[in-house]
Write a structure and sequence with these properties.
72% helix; mainly alpha
């Protein structure tokens, strides 16, 4: 183990990355134990596995870096606050009655039109719109008036702070 760790430190020049490489090496060695020849020296076999794992990691990192300029950038970076708000909204959505939750999910997450969603639920469009409105209002109350505060901040109705950011 000490020899593997020293070699990993030489390859990666980072203690945490070296520990990860040693773990990956041992994981691969255990998974491929049937390829080791009993009676042969175990060290060269483990070092070869480590070297190949390191080269694979370097290739993977190079591929990611080469592809990075072509990938779209996120509109806004996700923050801890955003995660907490999302969790609160999802918990509030789960607490709604099914008749109010389903219309919101069909419109917001499935991106259906009002007519399509009403058809899926097998209810008239007016009934669907009523359930959707009651569900949205209940969700606003449960989340603590987030939409009302968005309107105070000058955002259009139905827009969240994240959508309203430049």
């Amino acid at each position: 183990m000490k020899s593997l760790r020293r070699y990993a430190l030489v390859l990666t020049r980072d203690a945490a990355a070296a520990d990860d490489l040693v773990q990956e090496t041992l994981t691969r060695a255990i998974a491929r134990a049937d390829t080791w020849q009993p009676g042969s020296d175990l060290r060269p076999w483990l070092f070869r596995i480590m070297h190949n794992a390191h080269v694979s990691d370097l290739r993977r990192a190079r591929t990611r870096n080469d592809a990075a300029p072509d990938l779209p950038r996120p509109v806004t970076p996700e923050t801890q606050h955003d995660r907490v708000e999302l969790r609160q909204v999802l918990e509030a959505l789960d607490s709604l009655p099914e008749a109010q939750r389903t219309p919101i999910v069909l419109i917001a997450l499935r991106e259906m039109s009002y007519a399509e969603a009403a058809h899926v639920l097998g209810v008239p469009l007016g009934t669907f719109m009523s359930r959707l409105g009651r569900g949205r209002e209940a969700l606003r109350r449960l989340v603590g008036g987030r939409c009302a505060s968005a309107r105070k901040n000058g955002l259009p109705s139905g827009k969240t702070r994240k959508e309203g950011r430049p």
